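Re: the request from the purification team.
They wanted to know what the chain is likely to look like in 3D before they choose a buffer screen. I agreed to run a prediction and write the result into the notebook, where they can find it.
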Amino acid sequence: MYHTPSRRIKKKKNDRLNLVPILDSVFILIFFLLLSAQFIRIFEISSNVPIVSPADPPPPKNKEPLNLTVEIAKDSIKLLTGNNQVEVKKFEADLEGNFPLEEYHAFLIDLKKKNIDEKTVIFEPSEDVAYEKIVEIMDATRLLEKTDETLYKFDKVEGDVPLEFLFDDIIFGNITS
C-alpha cells in the first residue's frame, strides 16, 4: 500500500497579513479628505522682521544711511530719514481719508534717485489705520510703475542696470498684537 509522505500532508500556514483591506480604506480616506478640503488662495506681501544680532556691526560707511521710516497715521503719512529721524515730508489725507499716493510715490522716486543703493524702508503704522490703506502705501513704496521714469543702478559686471523696485525691503517697526 502506498502512503503519501508526511511533508505533503501538512499544509503550510500562510503567516502573512492581508494588507489589501487596510490599503483600500487608507486610499478611500485620502480621497474623501481631498474632496472635503477647501482650497483657498493666500496672497503674501513679503516683509522682514527686525533681527537682533550679537555680531559686531559692519564698518561705518562714509555716507550716512538713509534710514527711511514711514509713519502712517489715520490722517497723515510722515517720511523720516537719518539716524535722528528728521521729518522730510508729510502727506495729509483728504476728507474721505484717501492719501495722495501719486504725490507720495513721486517724492519717493526723487528720494531714490539721491539714494540709489538704499532698498530698506521701515513702516510704523498706528493701530487705527485700515489694512487696505497700509497695503496701498506699501505698493506705492515698493513698486515702480511702467509710467515712471527708469532708474539705473551701476553694477560692476553688467554696467547700468534698470531698477525694478523702489524700496522693496519693508520692515515693520512697531508690531503690536
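For the purification team: The chain has four helices and seven strands.
Please add any questions underneath this entry.
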